[in-house]
Amino acid sequence: MSGWPSQKLAGLWVVLPFPPRPSAGPPSRRRMRSSCVLLTALVALAAYYIYIPLPSSVSDPWKLMLLDATFRSAQQVSNLIHFLGLSHHLLALNFIIVSFGKKSAWSSAQVKVTDTDFDGVEVRVFEGPPKPEEPLKRSIVYIHGGGWALASAKIRYYDELCTAMAEELNAVIVSIEYRLVPKVYFPEQIHDVVRATKYFLQPEVLHKYSVDPGRVGISGDSAGGNLAAALGQQFNQDTNLKNKLKVQALIYPVLQALDFNTPSYQQNMNTPILPRYVMVKYWVDYFNGNYDFVQAMIVNNHTSLDVDEASALRARLNWTSLLPTSITKNYKPVMQTTGNSRIVQEIPQLLDARSAPLIADQEVLQHLPKTYILTCEHDVLRDDGIMYAKRLESAGVEVTLDHFEDGFHGCMIFTSWPTNFSVGIRTRNSYIKWLDQNL
Ligand SMILES: *[C@@H]1O[C@H](CO)[C@@H](O)[C@H](O)[C@H]1NC(C)=O
Ligand SMILES: *[C@@H]1O[C@H](CO)[C@@H](O)[C@H](O)[C@H]1NC(C)=O
Ligand SMILES: *[C@@H]1O[C@H](CO)[C@@H](O)[C@H](O)[C@H]1NC(C)=O
User: Fold this and answer.
1) With 50 as the cut, is the pLDDT of residue 13 above it?
2) Quick one: which ligand is closest to 64's CA?
3) What is the pLDDT of residues 32-67, one digit of tens each?
4) What is the pTM of this model?
5) 439: exposed, middle or buried (C-beta count within 10 Å: 0-12, 13-18, 19+)?
6) Are 71 and 420 a contacting pair, CB within 8 Å?
7) Could you tell me if the CB of 366 is within 6 A of ligand 3?
8) Ligand 1 pocket: which of 2, 261, 300, 340 to mutate (most atoms <8 Å of CB)?
9) Is the CB of 270 within 6 Å of ligand 2?
10) Quick one: the chain helix, strand, coil %, rounded to 5?
11) How confident is the model over 348-369, as a mean pLDDT?
């Protein structure tokens, strides 16, 4: 199991084996002194565990370190549970995440919240306040993030986001509780979001929720942004569903698994909440693949020049031509001459545009709806978003690229105490403002 234990946990074993030295003096003083030593050691250990070097330009760095340390310890506990054979590490991790913050459907005077299912797929629906002057509402189908394996429409973070959207946009928000890895793998997550969205778009269902059929959009963050982009492309190619979506809004989306050495992957390989090897493992898990490939994928051995299957696709994510020099800086492309062709033979899904919407044909891109893409500077996925914006723009799609210099991956859901970040609030406001003006 590569990547486990992570560097930080491995570090603990170096620190632990030095017991405090016995000291002279009267017993009570000695006890006090040894508790002092123990306390100092614990504080040092905690500080060592929590501290990670972060660029000063990131929003609220100390808070981010604490959030990262919390998430890291949950990951390590889950890896231990996996190692002991008690449960799959992703099931254990999701159990921890969901038990921390699951919320039951609770309606306020402003927003009505209901749990139901759309064609067998669970959804949580948020309905903004009725307004006599505006009988038909706008609507967003929302797909939460979490590496296709974690989180839920029902955890506090997503419940709060969708409540705020329903209230501020006076809209109906459908938040999809799609099935996760390891219960299902690619492309089942896509099937779930497509099935629920198709059901919702039926005239009688839209009517039931008082939704304007001309003002429905899709949106999602991280892996949810990946699923939203895949859904947008699929609807676009289905004549019955074409032009049914007015906008797509993608929040730091995951869009490709061919190049793990874009400038943002190189720059942020150790940045919380999503270090590079963690992202690569989410990909491998999504395809139920073998972790033995992770290290080779990190150096792009899966798309080396001798891997014929990848050759036509590489040009579609050629960042030396897609990204501006202000982004590429001095980073060099990592293009291996010889790699490992077994990887894409065993995991052909890596080269499938349904998993990597960035590599779709130009003809698929050109009819996509008006698009919003939010990117963060301190995020391995920054360049996935910027390259997609560029490809869409070249295909004639109207695109807004909203970049946050102090943003980190996942920041938009962190808006309330104790995990409130200034950039969390600013990204959310900017996103909702764009929807208000364009949906
Ligand atoms: C990448 O592939 C090359 C050529 O097969 C091999 O020598 C190298 O060890 C591989 N690197 C990793 C990290 O797997
Ligand atoms: C990427 O684009 C650059 C500049 O346009 C070009 O020189 C290079 O050959 C391209 N690489 C690939 C793999 O298409
Ligand atoms: C987070 O919330 C607390 C309590 O409301 C507030 O004092 C603090 O300034 C907030 N921090 C940020 C970064 O918004």
Assistant:
1) no
2) 3
3) 777 888 888 888 888 888 888 888 899 999 999 999
4) 0.91
5) buried
6) no
7) no
8) 340
9) no
10) 50, 15, 40
11) 97
d(Cα 307, Cα 153) in Å, to the nearest integer?
39
CATH superfamily membership of 57-439: Alpha/Beta hydrolase fold, catalytic domain (3.40.50.1820)
When pLDDT is averaged across residues 122-126 and rounded to a whole number, the result is 98
Which residues have a catalytic role annotated? 222, 379, 409
Kindly report the CA angle at 82 between 80 and 86, in degrees rounded to 5? 105
Element (H, E) at 121: strand 121-127
- The Cα 392–Cα 364 span in angstroms is 10
Nearest ligand, CA 415: 3
Tell me which residue has its CA closest to atom 13 in ligand 2.
Answer: 315
Minimal-distance CA residue to ligand 3 atom 7 = 417
Question: Is 260 touching ligand 3 by the criterion CB < 6 Å?
Answer: no
Amino acid at 222: S
Between CA 405 and CA 422 the distance in angstroms is: 12
Cα–Cα dist 100/94, whole Å: 10
- Who has greater pLDDT, 28 or 359? 359
Cα 293 to middle of ligand 1, angstroms:
10
CA of 155 to the centre of ligand 3 (A): 21
Separation of alpha carbons 370 and 387, rounded Å = 16
CA dist., res. 301 & res. 299, Å (int): 6
> What are the residue ranges spanned by the domains of the chain?
57-439
Ligand 2 near 314 CB (within 6 A): yes
Nearest atom within ligand 1 for CA of residue 339 = 2
